[in-house]
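Budget justification note: compute hours in this period were largely spent on complex prediction jobs such as the one shown. Inputs:
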Amino acid sequence: MIELQNISKSFDGIEVIKDINIVFEKGKTNLIIGQSGSGKTVLLKSIVGLLDIDKGNILYDDIVFNTLNFEDKKQLRQKMGMLFQGGALFDSNTVEENVMFPLDMLTNMSFDEKRDRANECLKRVNIINANHLYPDEISGGMKKRVAIARAIALNPKYLFCDEPNSGLDPKTAILIDNLIKEITIEYDMTTVVNTHDMNSVMEIGDKVMFIHNGENWWEGTRDEIFNTENEELNSFIFASKLSRKIRDLEK
Amino acid sequence: MKRVFTKPEKLKIFYKETIHEIDKLGLSSISIVAIISVFMGAVITIQTAYNTENPIYPAYLIGLTARDTLLLEFSSTIVALILAGKMGSNISSEIGSMRVTEQIDALEIMGINSANYLILPKITAAVLFAPFLTLMSMVIGLFGGWIAGISTGVMTSQQYIYGIQYAFIPYYITYALIKIVIFVFLITTISSYHGYYSYGGALDVGRSSTKAVVHSSIFILLFNVILTQLLLS
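Corresponding output:
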């Protein structure tokens, strides 16, 4: 479980995140949605400690993360996995080496054990016969799947995904969404996904937080989202013709 | 700085990365240092010859001048300026690209000290390998001077060899080695700093690279004055 208590973050005096309170539950896919520039990425980077918050607390299963020293943060981070927007795979390493990397750095496993674990993770994300390819030799969807494999290599307790569907076709996007959902249940993780893709909300959103101008504007389940009276959320959800048409049909 | 100079997470990986950096930063610089050294040795010899045409000056003076110029200044300071261009831009653009593509963030999320993992092997590799480049530059520069002297007929082989041995002060080699070690330390730290704190996109990585080379060169020239005063006075 991850709990945010009154967290705020400013840049040059401009408050980008304003007093956010929320609990992200274990074993669920928690989604942060909102328009571009609403503060989603800043919030996610603050949660994982890549940005320091100005006030409030970030709790990982009752451990106050933001007050930990560098070494203790490092220890806790070994329980986190993160999927970045572009994959963030290491260019000079092959697919297999990328997945083996956290095992190389943070475990005392033998080479064979590490290779077996890497292959297990790659198989889990349906990457077969690509072990010796470099990141620039694989497609965008494959990069995301390799990044997921790398993120789960150490059996993390927390998984963070920043725009996992950006740059992907709708079919591949749904595959990635479902993979995130399945892995969350399988590893019993607390998963937090940043997205502005409404398909993701429908596919995997166990809990959804709508962030507007840096504030927690609305939170609820994916079933509740379509019946909300919240004006800003409605204008976000029903921004496209297709979604408006579906709403009208439902009505 | 504090995060760079901490004990590596895994010594085995640190050694592996250091060897990789020696190959990438050191061995790949051999050809450029060799080419420039041979031509600079040749030019120093020819210029000295044309400025000492007066018969009062013995011909071996050409070899002596070439040797002292190479040992005191060229093989440390000028080689360092060349390395600032080559190593500096390489380090800054590599780390900068990793920063803007979130690879450094990925390392941090894994619980790895990214500054230590990425920068310390580069500093270690450069500091260990640079003295070899300087020694190689001295030998090749002197050889270039000998070729130029013989081929242009400004002196005989015996005169040049006598000149490069005459009044030889071994401390000059120590002086050059101390200088190059400090210079490459400056190059790697300054370039890593600019790369590590890059932000934005490809254009910003390019800017960081340029800053790395310019700042490294300025610091080399500044420290050259300080070290010369400290070590030769």
